[in-house]
């Protein structure tokens, strides 16, 4: 029974950190590339995706140990996408989490290469598992991380003008980008966690949907936190904050519905719902 | 029996093209991203890596059909690496194969994203196979395409100054870059082809070594063809052309040794040796 979710999050993310370190540092990688790869991995963010993966595995009857390797893979993939998103030709951000971005510290070439190598490392990490779930997990990760989702969402995000008036069309485009850039990887994380527990396909589908709704609510909360930044792809272009928070609440309600059948093993997932609800309330 | 290798290469690469088209074009990818991804895939180069993969599969007793999916994956991975290598922050090339490079035609952001999506597509393509070889193939591809090989080789290539005098140290560094940037993916292609034929691990090791030697000889031939370009990582910095060609010949001899046991099923691989020998003789 997870009484204190923030304790669960910090304890589990520490285990994720150990696994990330173990998999990232290899004497066979050129040192400058390795440093550029590690820069945004350590210290990391909240490790929401890998911890969600682990919590989904536990909900489906697995252990943290069953999921730790796949959790590291998802975090490597997420980190690569942040490094590339920050590049001068993309969002041109020079600071992330209070530190210089990878291209500011190591130059553009090493930032591109660090992202490329982290993507390969994600697939090496997840594909190298000998368990029967590895193959499905590679497919989940590649689908969520490819042109149909993460990369396509970023392409449409960049192409989005910031002068369009609020409209149903604009709302749909913003929702579509959030679905592909954020929710798809949350959904894949939960799905892969279910695979690590050798869950039934019905349970896996429920957990995947849980992850998607959680991701959409998280993105809305993030947009509200970033309300003072000038961003073209934010829900606040088509809704006021109150209405955005209502939508986040609706996604969290739908997420909760998906996991009613998991009983006490789903407590950590319920903690995620409360955690994201708090973010959206800020 | 492959009498005419150039016919084998052209017929097999046509089949590769059909598979690449089938896997690349999906209505779910944003159209501008899809066009950027396709730009360097069609028309492609000689398709040496995917055809090598198919020839290795045939040598080990498999059919072209057993290998076609994995062949497409290797070509997607190779193409992504070319797109990123051409970027302004890397080699800053504006022309490749007589056409504008992806960032010249579509802009830097889409070039980065097209490469990212092609890498994901490579793993989606190879990981989505239901055959038992898929998992090992994902590992081979991730290892050859990651920080220890392809990406690390490119990082060291970029870091290489062009003022060092010829020395054993410089020769070793150039050889190391070629081993990781070129030979590793040739070796992985042959290894994956062997996997597609469910080859013994002994046969797979032989084919992997064959691919590596072939790749090293190919790279030397390529350096000789590019003798007039100012490049920092070329064998011609530490050998004259005659000595470089001797080294290429030595690698081709070692490659031939690896496949003596394959009999008539190895004819296409022997065609590869003749083909690369011709390149190095130009």
Number of domains of chain A: 1
CATH fold group of chain A: Farnesyl Diphosphate Synthase
**Radius of gyration of chain A, CA atoms, in whole angstroms:** 18 Å
What structural class results from the helix and strand content of chain A?
mainly alpha
Q: Could you state the oligomeric state of the chains shown?
A: homodimer
Count of strand segments of chain A: 2
How much of the sequence of chain A is in beta strands? Answer: under 5%
Shape of chain A: globular
What is the helix/strand order of chain A?
HHHHEEHHHHHHHH
CATH architecture of chain A: Orthogonal Bundle
Characterization of this structure:
Chain A has one domain: Orthogonal Bundle (Farnesyl Diphosphate Synthase). In chain A, a hairpin with a 2-residue loop joins strand 1 and strand 2. The first copy, chain A, is mostly helical and 282 residues long. The mean pLDDT of chain A is 95. In chain A, helix 1 crosses helix 4, helix 3 packs antiparallel against helix 12 and helix 10 runs antiparallel to helix 11. Chain A is globular and about 50 Å long. Chain A contains twelve helices and two strands, in the order H-H-H-H-E-E-H-H-H-H-H-H-H-H. At the A-B interface, helix 2, helix 4, helix 6, helix 7 and helix 8 of A face helix 2, helix 4, helix 6, helix 7 and helix 8 of B.
């Amino acid at each position: 029974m997870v009484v204190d979710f923030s304790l669960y999050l910090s304890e589990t993310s520490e285990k994720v950190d150990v696994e990330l370190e173990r998999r990232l540092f290899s004497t066979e990688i050129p040192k400058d590339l390795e440093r550029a790869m590690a820069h945004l991995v350590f210290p990391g963010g909240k490790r929401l995706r890998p911890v969600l993966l682990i919590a989904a595995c536990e909900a489906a009857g697995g252990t943290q140990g069953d999921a730790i390797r796949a959790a590291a893979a998802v975090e490597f993939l997420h980190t690569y996408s942040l490094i590339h998103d920050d590049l001068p030709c993309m969002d041109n951000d020079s600071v992330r989490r209070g530190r210089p971005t990878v291209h500011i510290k190591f130059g553009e070439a090493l930032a591109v290469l660090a992202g490329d190598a982290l993507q390969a490392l994600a697939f090496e990490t997840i594909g190298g598992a000998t368990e029967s779930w590895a193959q499905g997990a590679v497919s989940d990760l590649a689908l969520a991380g490819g042109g149909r989702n993460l990369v396509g969402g970023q392409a449409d995000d960049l192409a989005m003008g910031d002068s369009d008036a609020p409209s149903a069309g604009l709302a749909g485009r913003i929702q579509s980008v959030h679905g592909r850039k954020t929710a798809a990887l949350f959904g894949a994380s939960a799905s892969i966690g279910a695979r690590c527990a050798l869950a039934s396909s019905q349970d896996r589908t429920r957990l995947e949907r849980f992850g998607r709704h959680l991701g959409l609510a998280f993105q809305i909360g993030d947009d509200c936190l970033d309300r003072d930044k000038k961003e073209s792809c934010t829900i606040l272009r088509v809704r006021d904050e109150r209405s955005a928070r209502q939508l986040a609440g609706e996604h969290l309600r739908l997420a909760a519905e998906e996991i009613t059948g998991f009983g006490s093993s789903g407590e950590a997932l319920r903690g995620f719902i409360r955690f994201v609800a708090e973010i959206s309330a800020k």
